[in-house]
Amino acid sequence: MTSVTEDPATALVENQDPKVHFRGVEVIYPGEQGGEPVHALEGIDLAVRDGEFVSLIGPSGCGKSTLLRVLADLTKPTVGEVRISGETPRTARLKRKVGFVFQDAALLEWRRVLANVALPLEIQGISRGERQARASELIHLVGLTGFEQAFPRQLSGGMRQRAAIARAMSTNPEVMLMDEPFGALDQITRDRLNMELLELSQRLRMTVLFVTHSIREAVLLSDRVAVMTPRPGRITEVIDIDLPRPRTLETRETAAFEELAKSGMHLLEQGFGSS
Amino acid sequence: MTGLSDSAVTGIDAKGTGSTLGLGVLVPPVVSFVLIVGLWEMAVGYYETPAYILPAPSRIWSSMVKDEGSILGHAGITFFEAVAGFTIGSALGAVLGALFAYSRTLARGLLPYVIAANTIPVVAIAPIIIIWFGHGLPSKVAVTAFLSFFPLALNMMKGLQSYDHTIMDVFHVAAANGWQRFAKMRLPSSLPYVFVGLKLNVTFSVIGAIIAEFIQADRGLGFVIMTAYRTLNMPRLWAAMLVSALIGILFFALVALIERWVIPWHSSMREDVRS
């Protein structure tokens, strides 16, 4: 049941045309003021299939956010190759193939929710009518109907994050990157948003890379969980989550779930031990 | 899909405009004004204080409207100089501040001079400017513009540099160009700083206009103050002083009103004026 793949790279060779592909990726940040250079990522090999939900989990400093930033063309890899639908992160970004949800909702406080969600479309040059129609649709999808004309400061943390998700989805990206999107929310709100993200990602067959600190959140949402260790940032194991879908919050009470969460926990602890 | 827990909106209808002028807001200042003026008038009458020590309010008022013609014409000239200098100085300051924000080289090269110029006492440089610009209105406007230049230049620079970095990442992922980043994100982010600079400029511009008139003028409030001082016409001096304060208050209120209208979303705009 708990199939832990020995080598993440070879396990994915079966897939001919992955949506996202890392090959031998290394990111080195120059050390600050004569300090040692930091190996944020080393020897990253990972392939993500179309419609797959992959979580990245690990302690702080393991490079999981850097991995997403490389995909979004926010950080350049020092060594190695990254492809999104066969294209470089830069090309993919310019073609609006990537959506990014940050831990902070990062909404523009001077814009109403509707205009915030429509922002990427506005930047893209989509006509006003069209982008408002699309934004309204997405606002409905994330459960914010009725708040189109609200300002961000009038929303709760959970609602702000819903708006940020809708904004990231507005350009219809092929890959959705989520960097601890629910990390700052309370447990009840987090559970609810987990369920909605689960439902959404299944229905729309979204390809998602999801960074989290919570092994239980990762197991509940993902098809696979990549466990990372710090200094240098590496993927040590990739766990297949073969829990049946559709999943619900009750899935967390099954024995199979517990077993997967436990084995993930063990892998994380080993990572701590070696560093 | 509609969230129960996190759809609790924090004050969506409590707009918090603070513009409701109830009786509780208006009565105290009106009562205190009447009391102060009344006591002042009575005290001067009772003790028979000479006018060159402290003129009675009634005497100041009559001097304001009668002696050597109404003071209003002079006030109008000073107000015009202040507004014109404020506008020109602020515009130039905004442009230079924006250039500094975008070019580190330019900021390194020119900022020291700007800061040095800012420390020159206006009374020291005003005669030089007046000699350059001649005896008419332009020289008064130039002195005022000189004073209104620095606060906005520095605040504009700071404002344009103080954007949220996650929001910048959002713009990067959305493939926004430089102009879009400026117009849709850095400029709106800078507005709270811009208004801090503009409000400083309001005070400086009135000071600048009056100081310029001290040095050379045949009209304006500075001229009235100088003439009244030389002839020891204290009621007239008091009248000019109060009117110049009134001009400052009026001008400040105008800018504050514009601020309320331009950045209603900003946190500083939400605080109730009464608190």
Element layout with pairings:
The complex is a heterodimer of chains A (275) and B (275).
Chain A: E1 4-5, E2 20-29, E3 38-48, E4 53-57, H1 64-71, E5 79-84, H2 89-94, E6 98-101, H3 113-117, H4 119-124, H5 128-141, H6 157-169, E7 175-179, H7 187-203, E8 207-212, H8 215-221, E9 224-229, E10 234-240, H9 255-274
Parallel strand pairs in A: 4-8, 4-9, 6-7, 7-8
Antiparallel strand pairs in A: 1-10, 2-3, 2-5, 9-10
Chain B: H1 23-47, H2 57-65, H3 72-102, H4 104-118, H5 122-133, H6 137-161, H7 165-173, H8 178-215, H9 221-230, H10 234-262
Supply the key terms:
heterodimer, A: about 280 residues, alpha/beta, Rossmann fold, 2 domains, 7-stranded mixed sheet, 3-stranded antiparallel sheet, 10 strands, about 35% helix, disordered N terminus, B: about 280 residues, mainly alpha, MetI-like fold, flat
What is the rounded Rg of chain B?
24 Å
Number of domains of chain A: 2
Q: Largest protein interface?
A: A-B, 41 and 32 residues
Task: Specify the structural class of chain A.
Answer: alpha/beta
Question: How many individual β-strands of chain B?
Answer: 0
What's the level 1 CATH class of the domain at 72-227 in chain B?
A: Mainly Alpha
Number of helical segments of chain B? 10
CATH topology of the domain at 72-227 in chain B: MetI-like fold
At the first level of CATH, the class of the largest domain in chain A is Alpha Beta
